[in-house]
Amino acid sequence: MKNKKIFFLKRIIDVVVSGIGLIVLLPIFGIIGIFIKLDSKGPVFFVQERAGKDGKIFKAYKLRTMVQRADRLIGNNPIVEKNPYITRIGKVLRRIGIDELPQLINVFKGDMSLVGPRPTILYQVKEYNDFQRKRLSVKPGITGWALINGRNKLSWPEKIKLDIWYIEHWSFWLDIKILLKTISVIIAGEGLYVEPKDVNIVKK
Question: Would 203 be classed as within a structural domain?
C-alpha cells in the first residue's frame, strides 16, 4: 500500500510539473518553432513511436534538430557531434537540452514520467532478453539514472544495467537526486554525443 501511495504521489508530481512546464514553455516553443522552420524545411516537432511501460507503443515528441528524414539516412547509428544532418538551430537545442522538453506532453498524458529509463526505440525491444525486458516494467522518463551517469557515452548494455538498477532501487528521493543532477549534466554538456570513432555516418 505504501508503494502505491508513493507511485500515486509520483504521478501527481508528474502531472503538476509537466502541466506548469507546458504552460510556461508554450510561448518559448512558439519562438523556437519559428527558428526551426527558418533554418530548414520540415515540421517543428519530430515524432517517433517508442515503447513505454510493458512495451506499450506511444508517440514521443521532441523539437526537430535534424533535417527531414535524417533518421532514415542515419539508420541505427548513434549521433556524433559533427553529424552532417544536425541543423544549426538543432545543435543549439541539443546543447542546452531543450529538444526533449516537448516530452512533457507525454508526461502529462501518462505515457512517460519525469524520471525513468529513456523511452526505447521499437527495434531495440525486439532484441531484449528477459533481464533487459525488466526495463519496461516502469514508465520511461525524460531523464534517468543512465542519463546522469554517462548518457550517450555509455554502451547500450551499460545503459540497460543502470536503468534496471534504478528500477530495483527506486525511491522518491532517488528521483529528486536524478532531477537535480540532470541540471548540472545538461549545463556541462556531459555525454551529449558519442565519440566519432564509434560510428560511421553514411551520406545518401
Answer: no
Instruction: Give the whole-angstrom CA distance, residue 9 versus residue 15.
Output: 10
Residue 46 domain-assigned (yes or no): yes
Instruction: Please give the backbone phi and psi of residue 31, each rounded to the nearest 5 degrees, phi first.
Output: -65, -45
pTM exceeds 0.90, yes or no: no
Residues with Cβ within 8 Å of residue 192, at least 6 apart in sequence: 81, 94, 95, 151, 152
Residues 190-200 pLDDT 10s = 766 665 544 44
d(CA 153, CA 35): 29
Would 204 be classed as within a structural domain?
A: no
Cell of 42: 520540415
Residue-level pLDDT at 76: 57
State the residue range of the domain holding 89.
2-198
pLDDT digits (tens, 9 = 90+) for 120-158: 989 889 889 999 999 999 999 999 999 999 888 888 889
Q: Give the chain's end-to-end CA distance (angstroms, integer).
A: 55
Is residue 39 a part of any domain in this protein?
yes
